[in-house]
Amino acid sequence: MTRRFDYAANAPGATRAFLAFHQSLSGNRLDPILHELINLRASQMNGCAFCADMHVKAARLAGERELRLHHVATWRESQLFDARERAALEWTEALTALDGKGVAPETYDRLLDILGEDLLTDLTFAVVAINGWNRLSVASTPVPGSSDALFGLDKAGLS
Q1: Euclidean distance between CA atoms 130 and 110, whole angstroms
Q2: Which of 42, 60, 73, 112 is the most buried (most CB within 10 A)?
Q3: What is the DSSP string of 84-120?
Q4: Domains along the chain?
Q5: Which residues contact 151 (CB under 8 A, 6 or more apart)?
Q6: What whole-number distance in Å separates Cα of residue 134 and Cα of residue 137?
Q7: Which of 94, 87, 78 is nearest to 119 (CA)?
């Protein structure tokens, strides 16, 4: 895979603004491990190898078990996720795989009952962010693992 363009160098203002948006999400109501799980699931769906690699490592550093990471792609069939995690993964999929129909009202209502409005709002912004990063990475094709040292992901011991 060949890197195509450097979005940070070519559009530093937009990159800084998007990074600031992303950083504004830290300290929200999303548990760090849950945040990494939804980042991983969206990255898998979007075919973003760079981001999937990054979020597996970040999840491990946050304390996630390896087996659960293997199950993220098949979370609906797995017994390893609780109701809150399942709701977050379902919402992530609904907002990542846009079908032009929107989220069905019954799906929204069910997930709202499980997550609550505040967490659902924070989760929505997190999904917006990871989908943006996925699209930037899919367009620019950075090499998976190439930024591990920069982000401290080399500490995960996965290479």
Answers
A1: 23
A2: 42
A3: HHHHHHHHHHHHHS--SS---HHHHHHHHHHHHHHHH
A4: 12-156 (1.20.1290.10)
A5: 54, 58
A6: 5
A7: 87
